[in-house]
Specification:
This is LysR family transcriptional regulator. By secondary structure, this protein is an alpha/beta fold. The protein contains 10 helices and 12 strands. The termini are far apart.
Length: 305
């Protein structure tokens, strides 16, 4: 029996991503026949069906196919590191680096990484995907990304965190809000005023649970999934919010005030997630350094503002 080839694994991963033979062929820029032949050969090598064909509806992976696809991604990723390993020995970094980013952290993380690698390691090819904390970690465990940037509270089973920036939830106000200059803030104080909260789990769940533990219920006439929109509402003085990221002005340019408040379960650092037991590669380690340096500089600028 002949050996499994990298080409077969490449085509099979493309099938898993596209959900069809046709889509895989287009992604790999080969004929459908070539993909079908490679799939048949791979199924023959492993001794089981990897996909279920649904005429007119593409293909669905079997349970064995899901496992083989995940392992194939790992194999292809490791092969792709060969050139970067040689570059590392020569003192420079190169090769592909794919990173999944929780959507509210993307506005910080993506520009910081592009700037860092463009200046220092131009031979590194960066790719990004955005989504919920769970989405980007599932991509990580499936081998679709090499690193996930999340908040620690979003960590799922199978992933381990590396802290990038200590963080604590803060109350955000416009300067004119009656609580903006209050010397001491409690959740009971906050509950008396209209709020707009991020409609994203587990953030919303944790926020509501914190109020409940203090025996109060917040007044929440609005929820949003865009942190930019939320801060614009806050900047207009229409509501307060509870957020992780501080900035001097709303996206519309209105000044913002951020205040600490008393309550449970407020700490929530920015973290990098890697699969359990996986040590960061040189590329991933460089990305961690870049993100840490960005937050150090950002926090210093905010402190001096």
């Amino acid at each position: 029996m002949s050996e499994i080839t990298l080409r077969q694994l490449e085509y099979f991963v493309a099938i898993a991503d596209a959900g069809s033979i046709t889509g895989a062929a287009e992604a790999c820029r080969v004929t459908q026949a070539a993909v079908s032949v490679a799939l048949g050969q791979l199924e023959q090598r492993v001794g089981t069906r990897l996909v279920i064909r649904r005429p007119g509806h593409g293909v669905t992976l079997t349970s064995e196919g899901v496992a083989v696809a995940a392992h194939s991604r790992t194999v292809l990723d490791e092969v792709g590191k060969v050139s970067s390993i040689v570059a590392e020995v020569r003192g420079r970094l190169s090769g592909p680096l794919s990173i999944g980013v929780y959507r509210t952290l993307a506005q910080h993380t993506i520009p910081a990484l592009i700037g860092w690698f463009s200046d220092r390691h131009p031979d590194v090819s960066l790719q990004f995907s955005e989504g919920s904390g769970g989405d980007v970690q599932h991509d990580l465990l499936a081998g679709r990304v090499q690193l996930a940037v999340i908040y620690r509270a979003q960590l799922i089973a199978g992933c381990s965190p590396t802290i990038l920036r200590e963080g604590r939830r803060m109350a955000a106000f416009s300067p004119e809000h009656p609580l903006a200059t209050r010397a001491r803030l409690t959740m009971r104080d906050l509950a008396e005023h209209p709020a707009i909260f991020l409609d994203e789990e587990p953030a919303l769940q944790r926020t509501l649970a914190a109020f409940a533990s203090e025996g109060v219920e917040p007044l929440v006439p609005w929820r949003g999934r865009s942190i930019e929109a939320i801060l614009n509402v806050v900047g207009r003085g229409l509501a307060y919010s509870i957020v992780m990221q501080t900035r001097s002005h709303s996206p519309e340019g209105r000044p913002l005030h951020f205040r600490p408040f008393e309550g449970p379960d407020l700490d929530n650092p920015v973290a990098a997630a890697l699969p359990d037991g996986v040590r960061p590669s040189a590329l991933v380690s460089e990305a961690l350094t870049a993100i840490r340096e960005y937050w150090v500089a950002t926090d210093a600028a905010l402190a001096g503002a």
